[in-house]
Amino acid sequence: MLLGLVAGLVVGLVASATGSPILTGVAAASAPLGDLFIRGIQMVVIPLVMAIVFAGVARLGDTRTLGRMGGSALGFILLTTAPAVVMGMVAMHLALGFVPPVPVPDGAVAAEVGELPGLVDFLVGLIPRNPFAAAAEGRLLPLLVFSILFGAAAGTLAADARDRLVGVAEAVSDAFIVLVQWILWTAPVGIFGLVAPATARMGLGLLQSLAVFIVTVIVTLFVFMTVVYLPVVALVGRVSPRRFIQGTLASYTMGFTTTSSVATLPVLLRDAPALGVSRRVTDLVLPLAASLNRAGSGLFQGASVVFLAWLYGIDVPGGAWVGAALACFFAASTVAPVPSASIMTLAPALSAVGAPFAGLGILLGIDRIPDMFRSGTNMTGHMAAAIVTESLAGEDDGSSG
What we know:
Elements: H1 2-18, H2 21-29, H3 31-60, H4 63-96, H5 119-124, H6 131-136, H7 140-155, H8 159-184, H9 187-209, H10 211-235, H11 241-258, H12 261-271, H13 279-292, H14 295-311, H15 318-332, H16 341-344, H17 347-353, H18 358-365, H19 368-400
């Protein structure tokens, strides 16, 4: 995967810098390879997630155990996303104080964004009218709720009936994991096809024009992982920073290159046992984290609101910043696990500070680089959530049994 990433960056940057028709043609021709790789991952992710979540919940049997594990995971997600948003906003405020204004590029066009649902609509939308329709639309969170409820109901059945259902679900998930492993053998070529065309289109000129924004986001993401994830994993999860970094390198790289939580989920499931996470925790917490845990996206969104307000010279009162931070916090949990989705849910936060939606078009033009870094941060957070949940809920289960 690293080889494919480096090769894609080299070909794309050289093609952009030199204008070589050969390299430009190679980068453009490789795009279908990236599309095929992502399609292959997406083909198996939804049925894989449903099977492993159902089996994991049904295997628990006792719904009190489910409540402890789910509560620990949700608590971790909420308590890490909030400081991520604040760190993004504060870091961007500080960075912009030392640089001259960046001119707005000509022809910036407002992006077409969907309206962020209210709290009631969000909660109602968690229950799918039709799970098959939700699967066809790629809506992972309602499917996750359905799978948890179905698994909890199956866990109350007699032992023989429950074991038969769990056995079928585990066999299905094992078969899909084998299929994922086959797909991952094509990762170097697929990642090259994702990175080379995007880098060739973007080039160094665009990076230079918005260098302050990009560098600040990247640096703050690494600071966030260092001061939040590593201490929490070490103190609560009892996993050393070195072991944690080594155990999450593959998932970070996969998230970095594919910019998709669901595409990285199979790698997380594969690597979690090496960090001491049991299967029943991974089967529940990792899909839950892949659907909800977006601390990296929240940090990016907080930084984006500050940057666009500064870019357009808007004087924002203090109360509006609070509203924007709350909007980013809520939006981070509704971000779809697909590339550049964080930008599409920024509209409410921009409204809170009075920034024009045209800024979304500017961010879309340079989003590939920060998208890779924030996706890698999200993947690290998914694994951290599983380790912390294993320590908190796993100890309770062990002591009670």
